[in-house]
Amino acid sequence: MRAPYIQEAPHHHGPCRSINHLTVVETPLPMSSFDKAANYGETKVTKNVAQSFGLSVFAGAFIALAFVFYLTVTTGSAQHSWGLVRFSGGVAFSLGLILVVVLGGELFTSTVLSAIAWAQNKVTTKQLLSCWIRVYLGNLCGAMLILLLVMLSKMYGLDGNEWGLNALHLAQHKIHHDWSQAFALGTLCNLLVCLGVWMTFSCKEVLAKSLLLILPVAMFVSSGFEHSIANLFMVPLGIAIQHFAGSEYFVALGVVPQVFADLTISNFVVHNLIPVTLGNILGGAVFVGLGYYWIDNKGTYANQTATSLHVSPFSDAHTHTSVHVHTPSVQQGPPDFDPLQQTYSALHTQHPHSKEYIAMKNKIQKLIVSELMDTTPATLSIDMSIYDALTLLARNNVPSAPVIDSDKQLLGFVSEQDLMRLLWSEEFSAKLPISVKDIMQTNILTVSPNDNLAQLLEFMVVDKNKLFPVSDNGMYISGGYQSYEARLRGASAAVPSVYPVVEQGRLCGVIRREALLKMFSNYYSPKQDGSCSPTEQSVA
């Protein structure tokens, strides 16, 4: 969970200052790679058409440039190891996908992962197919642009015309697959491409993403798998050289031009492009995208089944068990700390999780603020004297209270510390404020009724920078080694224990740390009857 941010409130209240609301629960729980892939696919389909097409042109150009690199690396290597030459060419070609991922291009072979969003009914079939066609045509335009520049620069004459001959042989080889072979090679290719892209969802650093892409791409290229967008540049390059290089080019090579007479657009489209494109769709959209969608659905169904079970947190056998807290190494500390998960891990290190335990865990993690908030809290008015405010807090036995107007609009917040600090200073000050509006806090930490309680608990009790003293790249930045237990003891968060619950600017309740304490006390206490725990009765 990131740090709170300040959101300026749009309204003013008489003589008061504008209110700054600091949102406590800003982001959802950490997303899995599948969730990131689903969002990735939905974003591609719903992106602005002009923007999507422009990025597609760039992606097609990136892949074409990568094939130029491949041809340069592999030209003139006949005397070297076949496998090592292919591998070096594959590593060179990985530049294309790295450019696409790092610079945000729209590549058809990775865009087919948007099938996940289609399976989740987030996009229609028409939207999906329109996106695929748009990106495919954009990739073609980008490839043709680089092809034009390569031909104008006469790169085919490099290394005594061997560069162009390498391109001719490679293009001719691609149109001599039969349909089933081209289809299978296309499937294998995009299986690797999409798995490589999927791996990048697990990290944020550009360097890490780039390194993760190299081996999957190097494997598909060196193994001769077929990539439809790469072929949109590679085969037309061979066709262009065969038609426009001139007879003197072939004479210099000692090659008869008719040897490459089968390099035609029709042969390319029928014998390569169509089956390879269909294979790319099967490998990326079906095997990777829909395959992981099916697996994720099975996991969701299992969790839903477990959640419906009777909750019985601890059996008699566990009641007197000593607790052992697992201590992870500092380098492996997660960037997003989940205090609930740490509590469960500590309590069950020596015991397997029961279905009842899993149900309890899921139930707690799904609780929201509205289920535990106080809907009738003590409140203060803006014109109330500080002495009346002090009496109200003492009478209701609460440490703080929100300040609201007649429409329940949140104006500020006053704590017992604010009041007592003022009273302490009375003997040192000749002029003291006499009303709540003069001392109330207007930078207010607030939550909404639908915010997740697990995230709120994390914010309230844990300073993650102290618990996991590592940089964004995983480097340990603390002065010396401390065990997990020692770091946890010193990782208390210096934040309030009470938060106004606000919806559309109106106060609808207050959530206190004591309410979460009571919830955990009820969950972890023995059952009081044979049906369910006390908390289930109160929050179900």
Structure write-up:
- It contains 22 helices and seven strands.
- The chain is mainly α and 540 residues long.
- The longest helix is centred in the middle third of the chain and has 43 residues.
- The relative contact order is 0.11.
What can be said about this structure in brief?
It contains 22 helices and 7 strands. The protein has helices at 33-46, 49-74, 82-103, 108-111, 115-119, 125-153, 162-174, 179-200, 206-222, 228-244, 247-253, 265-307, 316-319, 339-347, 355-366, 386-396, 416-424, 453-461, 464-467, 484-489, 513-524, 534-539; strands spanning 6-8, 20-23, 400-404, 410-415, 443-446, 498-503, 506-512. The strands form 3 sheets. Strands 1-2-5 form a 3-stranded mixed beta sheet, with no helix packed on it.
Please render the helix and strand layout as text.
Elements: E1 6-8, E2 20-23, H1 33-46, H2 49-74, H3 82-103, H4 108-111, H5 115-119, H6 125-153, H7 162-174, H8 179-200, H9 206-222, H10 228-244, H11 247-253, H12 265-307, H13 316-319, H14 339-347, H15 355-366, H16 386-396, E3 400-404, E4 410-415, H17 416-424, E5 443-446, H18 453-461, H19 464-467, H20 484-489, E6 498-503, E7 506-512, H21 513-524, H22 534-539
Parallel strand pairs: 2-5
Antiparallel strand pairs: 1-2, 3-4, 6-7
Helix pairs in contact: 2-3, 2-6, 2-10, 3-9, 6-10, 7-10, 8-9, 8-12, 10-12
